[in-house]
Write a structure and sequence with these properties.
It is a single chain. By secondary structure, the protein is mainly α. The protein is 56% helix and 6% strand. The chain contains 10 helices and 4 strands, in the order H-H-E-H-H-E-H-H-H-E-E-H-H-H. It has a two-stranded antiparallel ribbon with strand order 1-2. A two-stranded antiparallel ribbon has the order 3-4. Strand 3 and strand 4 form a beta hairpin. The protein starts with a helix and ends in a 6-residue tail after the last helix.
Amino acid sequence: MKKLIAIASFYLMLPLSVMAAGGPAIELEPAQNNLRDQDSLQRGAVLFSNYCMACHSLKYMRYNRIARDIGWSDEEVVAKMAYGQNKVVDDVTTRMLPGVALDVLGTEPPDLSLMARLKGTDYIYTFLRAYHQDENGNWDNTVLKGTSMPNVLEGIQRHASSEDYAQAARDIANFLEYAGEPGKMQRLDLGWKVIAFLLVLLLLTYILKKEYWRDIKH
């Protein structure tokens, strides 16, 4: 019995030792984004186009779907995100030519369609704001040290207020959360309706059960 307890204790402690070996987790700042804020989504779409699409794509999104969801016309989304270079039915792809990323950055930038679902908006928000310069003037990121990605928001960081800089990062995180699951708000809204329907159905079923069993003696 003692041997079994010792073995069980070993396996229970193993996950804790693995987590401890990984070191302290990164403390993420809350993005506090809001998918119902269409103004934020529109600003995030423009910021993503201006600062991210030089390297990154959203291959699971089309311009016309974005326009429909965030309150733009087809003409507006092409003008504000694609600058007239794409059709409204095209996928949202990077402007970088094939092979350039490997030559310049040494790696292929990831597609960001599902980044918010993979990492979360707090991670994206914190990552965008975690760039700093060392004593030699080189940029690095405390969230992902040695990252190949440059500080794309450097201009905003240097020349705008801290509130505007934080809002830009929040808008991008908000837009990427939308891109990761465009139907999320519709799903959440439908979920409450389904729960309400099931509660009403439960009440009706209970009343019907009481009626069926009213004259039956137990």
